[in-house]
Amino acid sequence: MRRSLKWLGAVTLAVAAAASHAEDRTLLNSSYDIARELFAAYNPLFAEHWKQEHNENVEIKQSHGGSSKQAQAILQGLRADVVTYNQVTDVQMLHDKGKLIPADWQKAFPNNSSPYYSTTAFLVRKGNPKGIRNWDDLVKGDVKMVFPNPKTSGNGRYTYLAAWGFASKLYNGDEAKTREFVRNFLAHVAVFDTGGRGATTTFIERGIGDVLISFESEVNNIRKEYGQDDYEVVVPAQSILAEFPVAVVEKNAERNGNAELAKDYLNYLYSEPAQRLLTTFNYRVHNAKVVEETAAQFPQVELFDVDTQFGGWDKVNKEHFASGGILDQLQAR
């Protein structure tokens, strides 16, 4: 018995030593719901870069969900080293409510700490039977839409704001006409799922709706996964700039001994190999060489941003998405 325990102890130590050798460092990335596959592909690329630079193995762990819920989890104690979200406000929350990141976190990395971006686009069924080409086609006849609830999803908020921005330009800033357009737009929603994954399931697997609205990157990825002959992607001529902000959760990274690792993990997203990888997931990027290489992949779109069109996220959240705000008013029967 004593010999067996001794052998088991030796094996345990050997396994622990091997594990230590294989994973010298561990970093936790808290990210948005539909970014699992993206970071599953990025993490080995970064790990190889870190190995070459520091001769050290690193394991990247992923945590995914609605980015607002992910931020709340960090405020409640999740010791994520970095966040990679789809909403500026969810990153800002980490400063405003937890002082876990500095107030000027958007200056830490280029492009307002958004290494890639996208816009809102449509996924329609084969042949585009309802002839959907632009935002105003969505409010015609019996067209039914599926997109996440703006109350619970950053993806949904971008869709709502894209429709509002289109209508505002169409009616030269006439708010009454814009409100009526968006009220009609919301009336054409078949299902409001809580997040992007749920909306995809509703449209693809349950067969509900004529059009799924999501990020351009996501609708292209869905079409690739579920059948390029069964669906078509429509990118409207006007839409909203959807940024994907990143930040080091400095207090956590310092406590975890990962400050340098966390910064390099996010900074490497701007490297040419990482930017090229991002385009394979249909995200638009900033690297000039990669932009030129992939120009044919991304249609020209007139993009408007939240700051210019709506006065910033703080303002738009208070006016549109707060309880009793414009979204609630437009949905009231």
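(ticket continues) Second input and output from the same batch:
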Amino acid sequence: MRLLIFISIKHLMDRKRQSIVSLMGIVLGVAFFLAISSIMQGSQRDLIERLVDNSPHITVSDEFRKPNRQPVEMLNKHGAIEIRNVTPLTEIRGIRNYEQILHTIQQIPGVRAAATQDGQALVSFAGRDIAISLNGMEPTEITGVSTIEDYMLEGGVDNLIANRDGIIIGAELAKRLSVNMNDNITVATTTGQVRAFKVLGIFRTGRNSYDRGQAFADIKRVQALMNRPNRANSIIIKLDDPYQARAVAQNIENRYAYKTVSWQEATEDFMSTIAIRNIIMYTVVSAVLIVAAFGIYNIISTVVMEKHRDIAILKSVGFHARDIKVIFLIQGILLGCMGAATGLPLGVAMMLGLGQVHFKQPFTSEKIAMPLDWSWEQFALAGGFAIVAAMVAALLPASKAAQVQPVEILRGGAQ
């Protein structure tokens, strides 16, 4: 084997310029493959983490996937029945007996849950009115199902526990209203109820729409404002393992019939788009390495054409066809390994440069760094694909070299 490797290196060194050009193609291909795939995977991971961390893993809403069956349908299960002009009874919307349901859900291992009463409201201060989404929650449960505590600029969720007449608002809303901590603001709802709240916390998530239009208050106060006593319009759930959300949501819906949506179900379209984007991305970056592999194919084919006489001599002194094939396959593998070994550090340098780029996303108020994926899988994929592409590129010329007939070549040389 050492002799075969020596012959392979000798062939490559004989055509040094062409070998370096082919090698540079692999180096640049590996570097771009690594940099682009790390950006795409990093942005995908960042999006999913934001999705999973900033949103409930499961949401139980006060809706049903299927309408309630009418008594006549239940009595005549196999009959052809059509019911027309059924007008639902007017009732207060919300999850009935939500406290008992919430208590049962909280007994599931690895589950944190909280009931919410949400609705539209109008905040007034110093003659200025702004519409917001008012979220009513039990203050002691907010931190278990929400990351809002991580974004607090002033005050905190604990202040709501001490003073149930308080409210937590976003920094953009506070700025538009010119409100500071401990100021009293007036909140009115569509039911005509009006109540004064003291500002006990100000948060900034970096998302303008959220910081401008969301507020948190005690659920009992919000229920009174919405005129929906003892009702919650949703139960939000966080899991220790977010990827169990689909199974847990199915169990809850089977038990209580209320529509229960996991984060995977809520984002199916988004996840499908991500999968298609990954296919396109890997196709494009793989094309770079495939083009570089054609360079290897070209250099090894040229070597085979020029070394017909050497191949014939090798065969005449006892080298088998498989030995000749291995010699040229080694050339492809050597170029692939050297390209990967040089391209990976170059890709790391490109990633470090991209990591210094900061940009402002749409609908956000803060600049963020370029999300990059530094996992070993990206390095293994880039290096492995380069070596495989180089080996496949060398396979065809190596097979042709193995088929060289020494008698015909040597006889032709003698003539």
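Agent notes: The mean pLDDT is 83. The CA atoms of residues 58 and 262 lie 4 Å apart. Closing as not reproducible unless the customer responds.
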